[in-house]
Give the backbone structure.
Amino acid sequence: MSRSTNTSLSSLGEFGLIDRIRARFPQPAPPELGIGDDAALLNPSPGMQLVVSTDLLAEGVHFERSFGPLRLLGRKALAVNLSDLAAMGAKPRWFFLSLAIPAGFPLEEIEALLDGLAEQAAEHGVLLAGGDTCGSKSGLVISVTVMGEQRPELVLRRSGARPGDDVWVSGTLGDSALGLQLLLAGYEKKGDVATEYVVSRHLDPTPRCELGQALADAGLVSAMIDISDGLLADLGHLCHQSGCGAEIELTQIPRSAPFDAVTAGASPTPWQLVVAGGEDYELCFTAPPAGRAAILETANSAGVPVTVIGKVSDSGQVVACLPDGSNFQPSASGYTHF
Amino acid sequence: MSRSTNTSLSSLGEFGLIDRIRARFPQPAPPELGIGDDAALLNPSPGMQLVVSTDLLAEGVHFERSFGPLRLLGRKALAVNLSDLAAMGAKPRWFFLSLAIPAGFPLEEIEALLDGLAEQAAEHGVLLAGGDTCGSKSGLVISVTVMGEQRPELVLRRSGARPGDDVWVSGTLGDSALGLQLLLAGYEKKGDVATEYVVSRHLDPTPRCELGQALADAGLVSAMIDISDGLLADLGHLCHQSGCGAEIELTQIPRSAPFDAVTAGASPTPWQLVVAGGEDYELCFTAPPAGRAAILETANSAGVPVTVIGKVSDSGQVVACLPDGSNFQPSASGYTHF
């Protein structure tokens, strides 16, 4: 990949930048059409439902440029959108990228951002089909719209949970929130493996696309959501849409060894980070208990551990039980934007 | 439509705002799914190609809040996207809306923005299917992605123009650029009909959706583009994609009576505004001369005047001829973002 370090964004211009973007990403091939006309032309697969999500990331709100390399920001901008498709069990196919770029923004930083986007796109087989680029009077703004597909009868919504279903989560929770806490406290990379791990879970989360599709294809799951606002908030959304509640055991929630290592001095366990920190981008789903073995096998094939953390109830409330039998109350469930 | 003038955005919160948005827009009905899950679920029509465009509008770059009511900004944010679908001859079906909103932004201004978006959406039968809302550390940012459909064999691209084809434009050109010039000079509404007309063409452009679809359906047009960067720039894009050139007569380009009234004192005619001002959101298209009568009839049915302004050539250049036989050179062809 060649870099023109002597070229600035202003000398390149909007169309020069678009040419660079087009050269960086494999494009939809005829009869489809990607970048280069008034709109993209895409051929949805016959009989599939189109699954579409969009997320906007603004500097100073969703990220600070000082937190990490722009390559990771590019990876994350696509990852958070792919995570939404994973939560519906959809296979990602195309994405659209809009960038508002402040004056004087270094071209090599834009190239690094595109590198990260291209990596994540290649890892999940999703094609850049169009977008928009413009100036910004303030910070960098990244808007991504991602489109995928799934058979209508297999799509997983938030609304299918039933009392008695197990509540599952993928991976481990709390790493990203702990990583953000370290970044906000002025973390600098210093070779500690556990610390670097949790920071990397914040800067470079893994969308669970393969797991989400495999669970949908297997037809074992009753409802699913991705954990972006924090487990309690997102499980709350799922229960609200399903007209039910849930009871979870905090000690059953999987934590990573690095999380426990970094928080070893903290007593009690920082449950706030685990259940209300957010940006885990893991999947939370519900399923009848009869499917447990098949779910474990499916998740194993997808290479992602999954864990039962509680039960769907008919209470209408999400209750998080502490080991002593009391209920945990988060100090705030999810990020507040306004 | 009820307005809670005592409610602020911060007391409403992100989910309260999403609820208001959902209440304002008719939603896709089952088996489709709009706002309320991780992603939207949409059913493309069998055999149709999906036509997708996205545009991001940033305060201080694309608009100033002081220029006009937020309702018109809402109309325009959707209009510029619909114009891209019109240029492909596609029927708009769904759109996605992302808003980054500065702290302290008045809720009634957001409501006005939504009013305008809802008006434009209703006028063109396009459904809001999802989006994202967040805070902004700086100005208001509006990102819209619009999706439509057309039969693959009828979609109009930029690449089909052939030497000998007529070059056509819809409506009149230059009004929007003149309106912007007045706004930048501190225009205040003062009852002059001509002035208000050209300002309204800048603040509230009309996407030529019906005309674009009718021309595509009629199969008479060889290539089409919408005029957002200015006629010379956009006709240049069309010619570049078609591997040809064009020769146009400036005096053949339709101007509005208000444009001529407002610029009456100017000599020579301000061609710069007409061919390089941009934001006309009219259609520029090419077609074999044999189809002239049918094109006029089609455009008449769609209620939009269309005019032949020149010929496609094999020169590879777009030449704009002045009445004295010389060629007009714009001082800049299109807005420069970086």
Observations:
- Confidence is low (pLDDT under 50) at residues 1-5 of chain A.
